[in-house]
Fold each of these.
Amino acid sequence: MEIVITERPEIVAADIIEKYAREGKTLGLATGSTPLKTYQELIRRHKEEGLSFAQCQAFLLDEYLGLPREHEQSYYRTIRREFTDSIDIEDSAVHSPDGTAADPVAAGNRYDEAIKAAGGIDMQLLGIGTDGHIGFNEPGSSLASRTRVKTLHPQTIRDNARFFNNDESQVPHHVLTQGLGTILEAGHLLLIATGAGKSEAVAALAEGPVAAVCPASVLQLHPHATVVLDPDAAAGLKHSEYYRFAVDNKLAGQGY
């Protein structure tokens, strides 16, 4: 696992994603506040530098159960509003779990099959929750889990209430999420974390044991994982001398 500490994580992350986009690879996309600056930088590169996503496919990590796709806070709508409507990827190439399915268990199985049919995800973008979750794999999730239904932890509901007029009662309590086993099958895992509020989870991810209490710790098992942090998110690390610091927010000449 490579850990990079930089003042502008979105630049390092966008550099990595650009490499896969230029090769027409399959991208795993995340929603939430953490990747927004990275998406904005990629949109800028598309509009100003000609970066194309036309040959790519994309798969989302998760979706709320019972929320219509047209709802502004569904992840189906969110990824389009925040990213894919502003680039040249085909809308039909942007896939997400079906949160309205009558049989969500079957829908989860179909989603895993769709990822396999596309040849797998080449680069999966991730954030991390304050409790160490990735996707919506809350503490206690099986390290071998597949796309499935999960019940959100109360802390996650509190964290997400800001997207629902700060009203926890409006936040769906169940989701369809890629499992940790599904995520681990991606070719390259790219996790971004910013802010002091993530420092404890980042320390557990990077320097703690691989354990279900911190689902993100499974990145330690992956052969190609990159964790990009700002200094605040890295503040809890005890061994930062072993990690890489980006120069001018870039890692020039590196293969990631």
Amino acid sequence: MRQVAILLFNEIEVLDFAGPFEVFGVAGRQSGQTRFSEPPFQVFTVAERGPVYARNGLSINPTYLLNDHPKPDILLVPGGGSYLSDGTPAGARREMHNPAVLNWVRRHADKAELVLSVCTGSMILAGAGLLDGLSATTHKSAIRSMADLFPAVSMQPERRWVDNGKIITSAGISAGIDMSLYVVGKLLGEEVAHETASYMQYEN
């Protein structure tokens, strides 16, 4: 069983984390499926503090805090948020400068099997120095600003997701579902990925 840690923070985009949570949460758990002796993924959320207030006011209680959670095999960093009405950065644009979050990402990314980002979560990975010399994508509205902020990252705006091997980034919001299904196929086989998508009634 692989442990999947999903980072949460204020102004996070709901589908950025909920889509991948659903994919990894139901993968290999379909009714009557006997190929696995136990569920292949255990998914949990992690935040610096709780509760977390997502976009549009959704309140979320994280499963764990940054300093107390199981060792993640897969680390997933969602995105979301832009700027508040007074021009203050919010969401991922704030967290990409948050030392506590960046240190946590670096520490666990070093030992994780895979590191994933959705949407502007790629800015947090880039802020942690994990994307230097790699290709990446992000939400279409953040492509230019990410290219300006992180010139060592080769942006691929036309890609739904970009697989660098250990680090995989996806484009905005719903693209996180596509990337997560891709990861399920990468780790468990295409048949399991198709079964998961079929159970979710998701066509990708």
Amino acid sequence: MRRAIELAARGLGSTSPNPVVGCVITDASGAVVGEGWHQRAGGPHAEVHALHAAGAAAHGGTAYVTLEPCNHTGRTGPCAQALAGAGITRVVYAVSDPNPQASGGGATLRAAGIDTAAGLLADEAEAGNAAWLTSVRLGRPHVTWKYAATLDGRSAAADGSSRWISSAESRADVHRLRAESDAVLVGGGTLRADDPHLAVRGVEGATQPLRIALDTRAALVPTARILDDAAPTLLVVGEDADTRHLPGVELLRLPLHDGRVGVHDLLTPLFRRGVRSVLLEGGPTLAGAFLEAGAVDRVIGYLAPALLGAGPAALADAGIKNISGARRLDITEAVRIGPDLRITAVPVPVTTSTATKEH
């Protein structure tokens, strides 16, 4: 199963709006005879690739799959039936499918007389498929907030300069994060200060993410780097914004609340267009708005071994008034990236008991 989880990760960034899935098939003696992963939306699923690799050796064997085999016919056929038809006698999957349109594969397998078990390495498989699982369960894209800061938490110097806080190695790693995401999002402040490009560079075979610029007054100039043809771009503006100077730019007009776009007002239409994962690269104000809205599912911080002492903090107001309201995180990884430290963390679920302890 752990090998199947590794295989599933190869599909990150290319399978949306479908999940990433890996499959390993062993023969009757337990030897691996087939491997596969879901490579692209609309293409064969992981089980089909693995069955093709295994051939006749799959008969009487076991399939290890990271997600419950699907039970419906969409652009491809139901994998539960494919496994049964190949003579697989045992199926072990990590995570049950929460999508009501595709779930029920386990029951179909059991009805066919196939020994079926669920839950093996479920936590690891969930982590690897977090974006898709979050989007299905919550009906909105999974959001990763990425930031770079000094050890004293500054995202820029006092004069506003911020290039480059993090190392070249960290910046290259961010391109990997972009390649694994459906969309990259920045706000108006970042647009004006940095003129970001946001396309993926240096990642072979990468699918370019949708570049989203949140610019309520449509102040973007036509020569902005984000408007080139390196990747698709969506400009999010207020309902009454004058965009006549931006002909041909795809627009999403949204209502404003106190001059700002509501976080969920934005995430809902993105979900409808098939966006399942968003990399939030905006500045501290946009990050604070997303955190206050409860729409940050993962935090990735690149901490540079440097001190500034003054300048904007990495995170602005997030509606937290006292220490008891601090958004607690669970650190899932801490690794060196060049001279920097990359920390990955996910929010700790807020429970009644946790809130009581904090008070």
